[in-house]
Design a protein that fits this description.
Keywords: Glycosidase, Glycosyltransferase, Hydrolase, Transferase. The protein has about 375 residues and is mainly β. It has helices at about 5-10, 315-320, 355-365, and strands at about 15, 35-45, 50-60, 65-75, 80-90, 95, 100-105, 110-115, 120-125, 135, 150-160, 165-170, 175-185, 190-195, 200-205, 215-220, 230-235, 240-250, 260, 265-270, 270-280, 285-295, 300-305, 325-335, 335-345, 350-355. It is globular, with a radius of gyration of 20 Å.
């Protein structure tokens, strides 16, 4: 049985309106900006609306062949704003411009990132039906000029009581850290600062305490020794995290042999914690899978995907700014069904839906 047949048999269904949000739906933040992608959104229900907090990536249009322009964030009078930097390639022979996403110094595995060619901010989209979304026409949350001068990426939303906890990747020349913002109404936002130091991302926070502690998945990226694996951490207050334990690592072969990460915040079910995660192979082909974890001990894996739950197959998933990618940061569970909102090819937002019964079948659970 091939993977495609399995995906069809378990009943996962892509929304017929995919992609739900595309680059052409986004108003650029500045006159000379070009929207490169809207993707990797956090998802939540707020009152009677579906809310997506989307990552919007923008670049600056270069006017000369020898030039490359890119945005950064600076601050004046306590307000963040975008500034454009222009580099003449011929004047910087030490820099490498081969990757459309980065400008690096050095080559052959010894390179270091000097600048990103795109910069991401967070923008809100609202919907009554979970399919047709109205997107803000300007950034909802701007990066700050300190820990986020290179942008804010991949937000995830966890609701605990009346508070929505938004964790995201804060990118700067110091690295990719994980920061936290809270809100009660998606209008006023309060920054809580850095939670996990660089390089650590793909953080997914549980929606309630398990025992005496809050739990969060995270994905540090070791250099030299180790691989990009999922870790599990605990906190008494959502701010101070410790008790770090390795949770699950990449495989030697197959669709999980490159990197593996936290995906969407876990969902509580009668059988335990359901966790949608992502994994990539060594060719950077990203797929989605699922874990079922013990309800009282999230370190204990009860079942796990043996084949991808969702993999890049449609044209909008295979071709794009960074193709062969399906990547989720947010799911919404209601009425026995899980809506998985995912980034496709790093330039659009899509949704697939699956019943809890079919996820259990996929995991081999009766």
């Amino acid at each position: 049985m091939n993977n495609k047949t399995m995906v069809q048999e378990i009943g996962i269904k892509r929304c017929t309106h995919n992609p739900l949000l595309k680059t052409e739906d986004v108003t650029p933040s500045c006159e000379n900006f070009v929207v490169k992608g809207i993707f990797n959104c956090g998802a939540a229900k707020y009152k009677d609306e579906y809310v997506l907090l989307c990552r919007v990536a923008e670049a600056v249009e270069s006017k000369a062949e020898d030039e490359i322009c890119f945005p950064i964030v600076e601050e004046k009078d306590h307000e963040s704003f975008f500034r454009t930097i222009t580099i003449k390639k011929s004047e910087h022979p030490q820099l490498c411009f081969d990757d459309a996403r980065t400008i690096t110094k050095g080559r052959d595995g010894n390179s270091s990132v000097v600048y990103l060619t795109t910069l991401s901010h967070l923008r809100l989209a609202r919907s009554k039906d979970g399919i047709h979304f109205a997107l803000d026409d300007k950034p909802t949350i701007m990066p700050n000029a300190n820990e986020e001068s290179w942008g804010m990426e991949d937000p995830r939303i966890t609701q605990i009581g009346e508070v929505y906890y938004i964790n995201y990747t804060a990118v700067s020349p110091n690295g990719a850290a994980t920061a936290l913002i809270t809100t009660k109404d998606f209008e006023k936002f309060e920054r809580k600062g850095i939670l996990f130091l660089p390089e650590n991302k793909d953080v997914a926070i549980f929606p309630e305490k398990v025992g005496e502690d809050y739990y969060a998945f995270n994905r540090p990226v070791p250099k030299g020794i180790g691989t990009p694996d999922i870790w599990l951490s605990k906190s008494p207050d959502m701010i101070h995290w410790g008790g770090h334990k390795h949770f699950y690592g990449v495989s030697e072969e197959g669709w999980e042999n490159g990197r593996i990460g936290g995906g969407a915040p876990p969902v509580k079910t009668e059988k335990g914690w359901l966790k949608i995660y992502h994994a990539a192979d060594r060719n950077n082909r990203y797929c989605l899978g699922a874990f079922l974890l013990d309800g009282k001990n999230p370190e204990k894996i009860l079942a796990k995907s043996q084949q991808p739950l969702l993999e890049p197959e449609m044209d909008y998933e295979v071709n794009g700014f960074f193709g062969q990618v399906v990547f989720t940061c947010g799911c919404i569970y209601e009425a026995g069904n899980l809506k998985i909102y995912y980034g496709a090819a790093d330039d659009s937002i899509c949704m697939a839906e699956i019943s809890l019964t079919d996820i259990y079948r996929h995991l081999g659970i009766r």
